[in-house]
Amino acid sequence: MVAVHKSRKDMPLTPLSSPTLGSMGKTGYWRTFRPEVDYSKCTRCTLCWIYCPDAAIERREDDSPKIDYDYCKGCGICANECPVKAITMHREEE
């Protein structure tokens, strides 16, 4: 029997939860640091999306991350979890 590998999109979401965006309202206004994605480094591993505690990162069709700054609190977990350091934190004033 030949093993058939399913893409991640075809697999059930059982190991992951689907938090609702903005359950506490828009919270990005008090952020000190903001994550910025260098798409030339991004491998589309979706770890930032998985670990974001605020569900402020959306996955585009090609699995690249899109950060919703209305809800991002700037905690830096996404930058910390990125294996290729494609996400860096910058002061909000910059």
Mass-distribution shape: globular
Class from secondary-structure proportions: alpha+beta
Please, what is the average pLDDT?
83
CATH topology of the domain at 33-94: Alpha-Beta Plaits
Give your account of this protein's structure.
This protein has 94 residues and is α+β, with helices and mostly antiparallel strands. The protein has a domain at 33-94: 2-Layer Sandwich (Alpha-Beta Plaits). It has helices at residues 47-51, 77-81, and strands spanning 33-37, 57-59, 65-67, 87-91. Strands 1-4 form a two-stranded antiparallel ribbon. A two-stranded antiparallel sheet has the order 2-3. The chain is globular, with a radius of gyration of 15 Å.
What key attributes describe this structure?
2 helices, alpha+beta, two-stranded antiparallel ribbon, single chain, about 15% strand, about 90 residues
Could you outline the blueprint of secondary structure elements for this entry?
Elements: E1 33-37, H1 47-51, E2 57-59, E3 65-67, H2 77-81, E4 87-91
Antiparallel strand pairs: 1-4, 2-3
Outline:
With 94 residues, this protein is of the alpha+beta class.
